[in-house]
């Protein structure tokens, strides 16, 4: 069944139709300066598609909460813990309820963390709940910035990773990303590049017009039209909209935002003396607080006093006071961190959770165990977690072969390092080659085919050599380590390497 929704009208007066099923498979990018009508466009899209598909709106300003009154969206206030937001997102996919995640009132970093946790919960839902859902992200440049800003690198990486998952890997999970931004130059390119449908509104900067023209396949002279577009007028292109750039005018909407554009109002008619009284006389209910005063500058010291101080003998240096906290024993700290990682890996579902959720769980457990010092950052956690997932014992970890394996793993992307180390551990300890299900679990997936593609990827990079023995069992050899795994059944059940290490 083909479902087309009405977005407005074209120049010729015909209806501008959007193929909703095609949109779910190809994603949408909306761009336009402030006041160009982006929010109006998104509201029209949400209202027209509400009867046909589940919706989730990431709303930084709380403008879309009015959808709840007419279309039954549930408003989720983001002033909750990240763990709670992740769980709520999972239940949203399970029960197929349309929601608006209101981030109003949070600072920029808190908004990024909340959005990352919520999108991570949508992305990590069980396969049984991979129903189609339209995920609309307004002001996407806040959550997928092209460059670092005033927020911490950790928050930026979490938010950018969640947005990348939505646009790059969300389609198979039923997630259809619709992102809107004021400036393409501020939006991460790997997020914008995954959209196949575009609605470009009014913009003035040359760099933004050039990027919009590149996405629409227009020459530089034609991009000058973006300066002349009126409010609510966009140029559409994509398989769900039009095969050639098509100017359209967005139609009216049924609901309104809580915040509206400022309107000119006549000034009150107040006489000069009355206006002065209003300004200089506090009202009865006004909170009168003393204004902080700048401290007066001290009088300059005489030159003779300064010379006398400089010529005086230096006082005896006092012994440094003993610190309030004992020095950190790094060996003890590393042992506590290893215990925390082991606790996380004892959960059979840990391998299938997102890194953001695992890292938050790790930080909470570190506080409970009172791990001294600053906890590891996200990058250090990923490395430690990949090593812990491999289940290497102390004797193997101190060997030169394992250290070489860790160096080789650093050349790979962070999400596949754990799979490589599981294979390396089996080769160093002469264990049977892990099955496809075991490797898929180490990757955080249920797909055995994906595990086989990873083996091919490692072999193409000359890190491993795949072969089979006479009985057809798989053997993985590591030329750089000078060792290979014992024969193993590629179709065997999934095993947890940490369980095997504990048993040994």
TrEMBL record:
Organism: Pelagibacterium lentulum
Keywords for this protein: ATP-binding, Nucleotide-binding
SUPFAM superfamilies per record: P-loop containing nucleoside triphosphate hydrolases (SSF52540)
PANTHER family from the UniProt entry: HELICASE MJ1565-RELATED
Lineage: superkingdom: Bacteria
Gene3D superfamilies associated with the record: P-loop containing nucleotide triphosphate hydrolases (3.40.50.300)
GO MF assignments: ATP binding
InterPro entries: AAA+_ATPase, ATPase_Atu1862_pred, HerA-like, HerA_central, P-loop_NTPase
Name of the molecule in the record: ATP-binding protein
Domain AAA+ ATPase residue range list: 24-213
């Amino acid at each position: 069944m083909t479902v087309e929704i009405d977005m407005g009208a074209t120049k010729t007066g015909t209806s501008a139709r959007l193929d909703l099923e095609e949109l779910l498979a190809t994603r949408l990018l909306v761009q336009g300066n402030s006041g160009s009508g982006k929010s109006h466009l998104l509201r029209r899209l949400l209202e027209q598609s509400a009867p046909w598909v589940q919706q989730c709106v990431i709303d930084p300003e709380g403008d879309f909460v009015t959808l709840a009154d007419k279309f039954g969206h549930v408003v989720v206030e983001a002033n909750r813990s990240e763990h709670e937001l992740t769980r709520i997102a999972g239940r949203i996919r399970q029960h197929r309820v349309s929601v608006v995640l209101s981030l109003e009132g949070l600072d920029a970093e808190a908004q990024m963390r909340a959005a990352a946790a919520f999108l991570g919960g949508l992305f990590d839902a069980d396969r049984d709940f991979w129903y189609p859902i339209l995920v609309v992200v307004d002001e996407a440049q806040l959550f997928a910035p092209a460059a670092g800003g005033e927020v911490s690198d950790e928050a930026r990486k979490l938010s950018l990773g969640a947005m990348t998952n939505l646009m790059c890997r969300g389609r198979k999970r039923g997630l259809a990303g619709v992102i809107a931004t004021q400036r393409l130059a501020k939006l991460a390119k790997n997020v914008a590049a995954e959209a196949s449908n575009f609605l470009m509104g009014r913009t003035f900067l040359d760099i933004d017009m050039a990027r919009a023209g590149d996405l629409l396949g227009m020459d530089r002279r034609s991009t000058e039209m973006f300066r002349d577009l009126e409010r609510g007028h966009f140029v559409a292109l994509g398989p769900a909209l039009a095969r050639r750039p098509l100017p359209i005018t967005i139609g009216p909407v049924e609901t309104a935002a809580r915040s509206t554009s400022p309107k000119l109002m006549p000034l009150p008619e107040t006489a000069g003396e009355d206006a002065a009284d209003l300004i200089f006389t506090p009202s009865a209910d006004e909170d009168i607080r003393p204004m902080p005063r700048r401290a007066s500058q001290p009088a300059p010291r005489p030159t003779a006093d300064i010379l006398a101080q400089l010529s005086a003998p230096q006082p005896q240096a006092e012994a440094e006071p003993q610190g309030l906290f004992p020095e950190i024993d790094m060996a003890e700290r590393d042992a506590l961190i290893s215990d925390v990682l082991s606790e996380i890996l004892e959960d059979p579902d840990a391998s299938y959770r997102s890194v953001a959720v695992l890292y938050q769980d790790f930080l909470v457990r570190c506080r409970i165990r009172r791990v001294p010092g600053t906890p590891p950052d996200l990058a250090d956690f990923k490395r430690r977690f990949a090593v812990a997932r491999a289940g290497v014992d102390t004797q193997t970890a101190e060997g030169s072969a394992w250290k070489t394996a860790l160096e080789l793993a650093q050349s790979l992307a962070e999400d596949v390092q754990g799979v490589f180390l599981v294979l390396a551990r089996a080769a160093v300890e002469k264990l049977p080659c892990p099955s496809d299900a075991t490797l898929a679990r180490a990757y955080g997936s249920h797909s055995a085919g994906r595990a086989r593609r990873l083996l091919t990827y490692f072999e193409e990079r000359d890190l491993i050599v795949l072969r089979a023995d006479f009985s057809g069992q798989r053997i993985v050899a590591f030329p750089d380590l000078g060792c290979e795994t014992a024969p193993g059944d590629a179709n065997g059940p999934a095993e947890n390497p940490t369980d095997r290490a504990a048993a040994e």
